[in-house]
Amino acid sequence: MGVLPVPAEVRAILLDIEGTTTPIAFVQETLFPYIKDNVKEYLRTHWEEEECQRDVGLLRKQAQEDSSLDGAVPIPLETGSGEEELEQVIQAVVDNVHWQMSLDRKTTALKQLQGHMWRAAYATGHVKGEIFEDVVPAIRKWREAGMKVYIYSSGSIEAQKLLFGYSTEGDILELFDGHFDTKIGPKVESESYRRIAASIGCATNNILFLTDVPREANAAEEADTHVAVVIRPGNAGLTDDEKSYYSLISSFTELFLPSST
Ligand SMILES: CSCCC(=O)C(=O)COP(=O)(O)O
Ligand SMILES: [Mg+2]
């Protein structure tokens, strides 16, 4: 097991979810198939609700922005001309969601709908958020040492709260001081990390960001945020250059805080 000293100026640890706190397999083999299998039924059931209409509006706007992309699926406006038209619009939303998911897109529009759909899956006990076993004990230790702990995931804040609120470790939401999603900006843009620091009320170099994705680590580092790349079973492999450039950990227990005994 390695040891990674945390720089003394770090006051807050910012955590990615998929591939960092949580196995990629849980997201890819449980959460995402739930969306693909249930999106049509969900839209039919919730279509008239304000939240569902907001989600569809966001997806339609995203579809317009995506119109020049290969395979993009437009979502027509409803004119209110009957059941058949409604089915066509719902089918377009379904096809759009499937297309975006086939590319693992991280658009806010897709992530908002997914978060709302998972609500029922978690609340009925159909799904429990999976967390690597080192995560909870390590976060408790960091917090005891005075560290603030935040989540930054492409999954919507609602989806994050469901995953940690209905997790295999129980409701562990109390472990986090706050949550960020793509509404603050994409994880691959350095400006997002500056906005997060401003929102927390610290400098970017007071934050250590843990992620499995080198492009995200690179964006954070550009903003002068400390980073470590997390290696977990099932994560994408790193190139030799990435392995030698980034600080790597394979368990949260490898982080050594200056105040740790
Ligand atoms: C938190 S909900 C499921 C995760 C998800 O939808 C996703 O896109 C994961 O992205 P991350 O930024 O956590 O790697
Ligand atoms: Mg990730």
TrEMBL record:
UniProt entry keywords in alphabetical sequence: Amino-acid biosynthesis, Cytoplasm, Hydrolase, Magnesium, Metal-binding, Methionine biosynthesis, Nucleus
Pfam families: Hydrolase (PF00702)
Residues annotated as binding Mg(2+): 16, 18, 212
Record's GO cellular component terms: cytoplasm; nucleus
Assembly mode: Monomer.
Recorded family membership: Belongs to the HAD-like hydrolase superfamily. MasA/MtnC family.
Record's protein name: Enolase-phosphatase E1
UniProt source species: Mycteria americana
